[in-house]
Amino acid sequence: MPDRNSGCLCGALKQEKKKKKKKKEEKEKNKKKKKKKKKKKKKKKKKKKKKKKKKKKKEKEKNLVDKSIDAL
Question: Where are stretches of biased composition, namely Basic and acidic residues (predicted)?
Answer without folding.
Answer: 60-72
